[in-house]
Specification:
The protein is α+β, with helices and mostly antiparallel strands and 298 residues long. The protein folds into two domains: 5-179, Formiminotransferase-cyclodeaminase, Chain B, domain 1 (2-Layer Sandwich), CATH 3.30.990; 184-267, Alpha-Beta Plaits (2-Layer Sandwich), CATH 3.30.70.670. It contains eight helices and eleven strands. The chain is globular, with a radius of gyration of 19 Å.
Length: 298
């Protein structure tokens, strides 16, 4: 019988110090029943996104070691970056991949969340499918106020952590843990340095402000490119494909006399998220993933 397989995509609040990044990623390297698939750092966001896959118990051991490294290396009191953040280990999502149901992934995420709280004295919130309270399912709502406002936020009855102390870890902040479906981190660059334009476009495309379903978006300055970007999480690319949000951003950008200069994927992406874009732009009729040669070689 095939083993259970799970993906984990922890986000750490360090994207600039290569030595620290190497120490955080090291626990995932060369371990049995675990495979490090990818890790990407962003200096403007000051953030590290790791993608790892493995059997749940083996994955948990590696994750706990990486968290220990992050907590010892990252001081949130000194952290600055473009991406919203509330903790050294900002978010730990789990995605069931093979022989696991979402319910099993939720149970596993709760076990990990409790262990993180007990071992590191971290306040932990459960989010997405793991959230006990529907008001906490959206990560953006949990993170609102970021690290600096969390001490006050945690004193509110509505924001008592699911696990751990009702007080922010002095240097590591707060962590969110949960089970979710695959998402695509998709960023679109604009030919302007005006952050107000990126924020207006982000508001137009994101679901909570009347935009596209399954799209979360914000405007971010990218100093290295002297541009801004619309930074997005597409939480269900099968319902809202990447080409649709890209074309809406193009249309909104025209209002401000700017254009799209490019885009990027952060971390790994399901093949179907890209093939449905190819089918759209090529005008392919009756196309399916089964026509991609590589799907028959896996």
């Amino acid at each position: 019988m095939d083993a259970k397989l799970m993906e984990c995509v922890p986000n750490f609040s360090e994207g600039r110090d290569l030595e620290k990044i190497d120490r955080i990623v090291a626990p995932f390297r060369g371990k049995p029943k675990v495979k490090l698939l990818d890790y990407q750092r962003d200096e403007d966001h000051n953030r590290l996104v790791v993608t790892v896959i493995g059997e749940p118990d083996a994955l948990k051991i590696c994750l706990l070691d990486a968290v220990a490294q992050a907590i010892s290396l990252i001081d949130m009191r000194a952290h600055r970056g473009q991406h919203p953040r509330m903790g050294a280990v900002d978010v730990v999502p789990f995605v069931p991949i093979r022989n696991m149901s979402m319910a099993e992934a939720v149970d596993f995420s709760k076990q990990v969340g409790k262990e993180l709280a007990d071992r590191f004295s971290l306040p932990v919130f459960l989010y997405e499918a793991s959230a006990a309270n529907p008001a906490r399912s959206n990560l953006a709502d949990i993170r609102k106020g970021e690290f600096e406002k969390m001490p006050e936020k945690l004193t509110m009855d509505a924001w008592k952590p699911d696990f751990g102390p009702v007080a922010v870890h002095p240097t590591a902040g707060v962590t969110a843990v949960g089970a979710r479906n695959p998402l695509v981190a998709f960023n679109v660059f604009l030919t302007t340095q005006d952050i107000a334009i990126a924020r207006k476009i982000a508001k137009a495309v994101r679901h909570k402000d009347g935009g596209l379903r399954f799209c979360k978006a914000m405007g971010v300055a990218v100093e290295a490119r002297r541009q801004v970007q619309v930074s997005m999480n597409m939480t269900d690319f099968s319902q809202t494909p990447l080409y649709r949000v890209l074309e809406l951003i193009r249309a909104e950008a025209k209002r401000f006399g700017v254009t799209v200069s490019g885009s990027e994927i952060v971390g790994l992406v399901p093949m179907a998220a890209l093939t449905n874009c190819a089918a759209y732009y090529l005008g392919l009729e009756h196309f399916s993933l089964a026509q991609v040669m590589e799907t028959h070689l896996i």
